[in-house]
Amino acid sequence: MSTNTAREQRSAVEALAEAWASIDGKLEEFRTEKAIAEGQFATTSIVMNGHYAGYMAEASEMIDRLRARNFDVTPIRVAELKVIK
Description:
It contains three helices and no strands. It starts with a helix and ends in a 17-residue tail after the last helix. The protein is globular, with a radius of gyration of 15 Å. The chain has helices at 3-23, 27-37, 51-68. The model has no long low-confidence stretch (mean pLDDT 81). It has one domain (3-80). The longest helix is centred in the first third of the chain and has 21 residues, at 3-23. The chain is an all-alpha fold. α1 (3-23) runs antiparallel to α2 (27-37), α1 packs across α3 and α2 packs across α3 (51-68).
């Protein structure tokens, strides 16, 4: 897998995970734990409850299962979108 493909895959997984967290009403927790995981906080007293890691793992599993059923889950680049008139 090329670097761009791996980056796009992670981006697609993260987009799905973030959307799912939003639907579950856990978007703030997801974003906070993402920031902690990315090292944006030097020290924190925030307890991580697995929202970020959990949604990421489950989103990745969903994408894998869709691919196993021959669904195309290739991320669409904005530049590739066509305006429908």
